[in-house]
Task: structure prediction
Amino acid sequence: MLLKKIILLCTLSVLTLILSCKKSNRPDQLPEVSTEGKNTFGCLIDGKVFVPKVRFNSPLSLSAYYAGVPVPQLSITAPRDESERSRITLYLQSQGILLSEGATYRLGSPGTTGVVYAKYVHTVDLERISYGSSPDLNGELHILKLTSKIISGTFSYDAVSSEGKKVEVRNGRFDLSLN
Result:
């Protein structure tokens, strides 16, 4: 009888521990908004969760670079391998605009000096389709934290391809250590 009670107590304890454990870094869940340099990035692309993930031997990985001199420049790259033949990469970039903590920036067109812009690139079997933000579409980047070591923020935008196809990027967030 005592052995049965001990086994029952152990079983209940293990079940309680398992059920109380919180899963983290789930691929189907966006990371929390944070400002601690946790190297997290995520958003919804046409309603589907996007978090970066690449194969070990991939030359492209999650990265952030920001320099204020001589020409201010921001470059955030977030890739995800969908399969061996398919990759999605998000870019947030600027050139010639000095960013400030707490500021919100309306997104402009890729490659334009003096604005922040975003790109969504989907590559399948070496065919690359690029979607860019535009001042004519919805889009903004909000900088939550900007130090010499950390950049954190939120973003949301619409982007369009040269063929006129549109993609919606929503609930974006990043908390990155600067390179």
